[in-house]
What we know:
alpha/beta; five-stranded mixed beta sheet; 9 helices
Amino acid sequence: MDQSPYKEIIRKLLFEEQWSPEQIANRINLENNESIISYPTIYRSIYKGLFDQVFPEGSPGARKILRRKGRKSVNKRIGDRRGRFTDVKTIHERPIKAENREELGHWEADTVLGHRGKSCLVTLVDRKSRFLLTGRISKNDSICVRDMIVKLLSPLNKKQRKTITPDRGPEFTKYKYFSRLCGIDCYFVDPWSPWQRGTNENTNGLIREYLPKRTDMTPISEEYIETVANKLNNRPRKCLNWKIPYEIFYNKSLFLTKRDY
Length: 261
């Protein structure tokens, strides 16, 4: 690895783009149509300290950037009014093409909360491509969420906005408005069933690596939020056979590992 022509590419993707060793290795191999490097090799290089030059002596070094798994579950039922509005179409009525990820335009929706009810993010994730749309709102209420969903979806063409699936939180009670204005059918998951929006839940977890819980999002710049979205939309996914969401959503091929670094 010391003399590997890909060492600088790997370093950049690890530290600047926050890709995992598995994502890096498989994307390099995909773009070169051959097995050039394995992700265990990258892990071994990290643990041997080959990327530790920029870290203080005695620190964990590059090992600290390896993504940690797992989180504590939170019971939201106490004092939560989600599920109280029932005049909605449910996820069980959603088209089979949305369920099977057969086509673009089927979105899952949620919010990523900031510190103590202040600014937060609205997140929309396309089920097929895992492409993320996100924007910051001043507070987590139905008016702000409604307006942001309209802002995020309006620029898309009709083939890119077919259905949207939020949870039953009170912030989505204005669903009839954004559904009508954007020409998109709205379906709701069952109460207290976040796994029915698993694509969005997973993406929100990735966002938390950049905006941890209890972060006050008010002073965070729009440019930084856009940067986070771009990083996730240009990161290869195992579930996409190591393609990236941008490539799937826009049907374009990118060569991310062949830049002149």
